[in-house]
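User: Sequence recovery, please. Input:
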């Protein structure tokens, strides 16, 4: 039996192994990843929350933007973004650009 998060991944074609944490340099901590991910995602005017599960400490959310989908796990302990490899490449490139400006 699949849980709701697994169902969301399946519905939007997202694989658990395709995590942004696996493609960023080792020195990025999850709080920094969270900060830059949200900065980049909020640059898309069509950013839309498609599906979600809310818990006491946070939740899992599927967002769409520019014809792409990502699953974000954001709670008080951790942050992760799951997307297809081309989407991860796009987001990490933009995140690195923002980080280098600072």
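Assistant: Recovered sequence (102 residues):
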């Amino acid at each position: 039996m699949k849980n709701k998060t697994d169902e969301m991944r399946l519905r939007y074609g997202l694989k658990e192994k395709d995590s942004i944490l696996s493609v960023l340099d080792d020195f990025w901590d999850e709080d920094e990843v969270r900060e830059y991910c949200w900065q980049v995602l909020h640059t898309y005017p069509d950013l839309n929350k498609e599906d979600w599960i809310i818990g006491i400490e946070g939740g899992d959310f599927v967002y769409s933007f520019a014809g792409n989908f990502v699953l974000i796990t954001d709670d008080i302990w951790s942050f992760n973004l799951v997307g297809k490899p081309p989407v991860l490449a796009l987001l990490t490139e933009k995140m690195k650009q923002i980080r280098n400006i600072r």
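The chain has a mean pLDDT of 92.
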